[in-house]
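Hi U.,

Before I forget, here's the chain from the pilot set. I'm dumping it here mostly so it's searchable later in email.
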Amino acid sequence: MKRIGIFLLVNLLVLTTIGIVSTVLGVNSYLTANGIDYYSLFIFAAIIGFSGSFISLAMSKWIAKQMMNVKVINPGGSLSSQERQLINMVDNLARKAGLQKTPEVGIYPSAEVNAFATGPSRNNSLVAVSSGLLDRMNSDAIEGVLAHEVAHIANGDMVTMTLLQGVVNTFVVFLARIIAYFVSTFVREEARGIVHFLSILIFQILLSILASIAVMAYSRHREFAADSGGAALVGKSKMLNALRSLKGSVNLVDNRQEAIATFKISGEKKMGLRQLLATHPDLDERIQRLEH
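Structure:
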């Protein structure tokens, strides 16, 4: 689960919570009192699905700050030369990308060489870099990394991910309740309620994990677009410099912080199921695509 990303984790928790509340309130029993009312169930699933997705989006920036211990840089405060450089770079990139509001800029303590962008909208976003990135990258590579993250924001990737997750959630909630209904018909009537409830939770979690394959495929696709967007902002040479620098430092990733990998720029080669659940393509493939 650590590699699926903080957005999906929060989304799953929200879905599960809403599912428990709806069961306690008797909504599930109402929808299946006389068999399955497929139309009403689908409307119910869409409400839950998109609610879970948008709640996750709304919480994304706050949770990322807390989870990664991000120190947000105050542009009006007393800044070091390094902090001032970061603020100026992001501000310049935001203007080039056509953003109406410069993202918040922060630094999180980690030996890994990485960065991430998150937030509910283009005008309410955060770009954070690791202390390891600042220690190990030169100015051109840092600018390339920041350009990649600003491109994510400018492309509206976070909102698009939310809409996609909302669609996925809808079918997860819908199918989980249909499967749970039929499973509960195979047990004695006195046990049917608890079996139905537990089946909903189990199948909702299992289907959410399976459905994340589609979400991760989109996540990998958006990385190529962000690389191209970053190259358009700072030039291909700086973007390639950033990716090559990341490739040289990929083994420094702090495993305790992999849960936020959905938003990060770095990526490593994965095989099998890990490849299907990877949030980022292999760095060699990204470099090759950008070169051509």
